# Entry
Amino acid sequence: MIRKQAQKDGSTKITFALPNETGPVALIADVNGWDPSAHPLKKRSNGQVSVTVCVAPGQTVRFRYATPAGDYFDDPEADAFEPNGLGQTHAVVSA
# Structure
């Protein structure tokens, strides 16, 4: 699940959430240099794992999820998907 929330300063808070049974996973994205240690999804009391990032107005975020085993996957709820130059895709969400 991807939730977007406009902030008073014009930025957008984007929450990336998955069911907890997904296991350990991290958000890798252009906003964090595709670094799997930058935004690990954390377990929540509602049975999900999630992480929130705040982006500039109108910013487009290209992202994937990464597991510790080195597997990558896209979020089916993304706004769009693009080729990632590695023979796969990455998801896209716009603020």
About this structure: The two ends are 15 Å apart (CA to CA). Residues 2-94 form a domain with the Immunoglobulin-like fold (CATH 2.60.40.10). The beta strands are 2-6, 12-19, 26-29, 39-40, 42-43, 48-55, 60-66, 72-73, 80-83, 89-94. The mean pLDDT is 94.
